[in-house]
Amino acid sequence: MQGLTDKNSRPMEVVNYRQLKEEIEKLKKEKNAVILAHYYQRPEIQDIADFVGDSLELARKATEVDTEIIVFCGVHFMGETAKVLNPSKKVLLPEPKAGCAMADMATKEEVLKLKEKYPNAWVVSYVNTTAEVKTISDICCTSANAVRIIEKIPSEEIIFVPDKGLAYHVSKKVKGKKIIPFEGFCPDHYLFTKNMLLKLKEKYPNAPVGVHPETPPEVQDMADFVGSTSQLLKWATSDQLDAQEVIIITEIGLKYQMEKINPKRKYIFPTPEEGVGYLFCAQMKSVSLEKVYETLKEEKNEITLPSEVIEKAYKPIKRMLELS
Ligand code: SF4
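Above: inputs. Below: predicted complex with iron/sulfur cluster.
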């Protein structure tokens, strides 16, 4: 990285965050760029973003963007979704190796095999899938709208790709439909166990429990509230919730927004201090301010997709946005 030094010509590594943020702001204006960030990003990334949201909110935002460049602080499938929704824009991913282990579990070939087995079923793809898998999907969904989408679509049989945790949540909520889950899962959320939650509940007996539907069924069954990232944010920070402390089982990044929105409440997330280890997505956390700066400065790490993939993957995403 050339050029970014402080007034004493110290190298980039020792230039403080404030300067780095100022440089990023300058570049954003010069290059007509917008920064979108997922709630699981580091706090300093959330702070420089023009918009912070969950997968659904970010997909919506990506359709409204009128800048030349979108810097997407998230994992690969999110950048792909932004590209599919904005094919004429330059979508840059500050850490091109940041993938989603769950999205990578479902390949197009495996989903096609399931389609052969259940020819009448609709393929509903969680937005955490590759653009390739989206090309053979009937509709997409996020954890925020999965129940609503599945209730609304005309098919009685649903192949749900790739998250079996979210498939469990949906099958509990939607009556009269057969959900055929793909065997995928989020390694971060799905490794959280019932015993870990029991430990937290014992320590905080008065705290209601909110969990993300990517957690295992037995954890979901113990919760007072099961909801997507944005739904958990709303529930846990609401003045209607009669609690001084609340246990939240999802990625630690969301804590920052909760504390910003309602600092009067205590948010208990899985951490080593609580004796249960972090629920932490290393891929999401691999994006840093330095990487955002370099990516924007050099306009590198652009997401490119074949036009045929963009065209086909657009249909299920558009259907989702219309139905939700
Ligand atoms: S938290 Fe899980 S589902 Fe979300 S990006 Fe990370 S690996 Fe993928």
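The chain has a mean pLDDT of 93.
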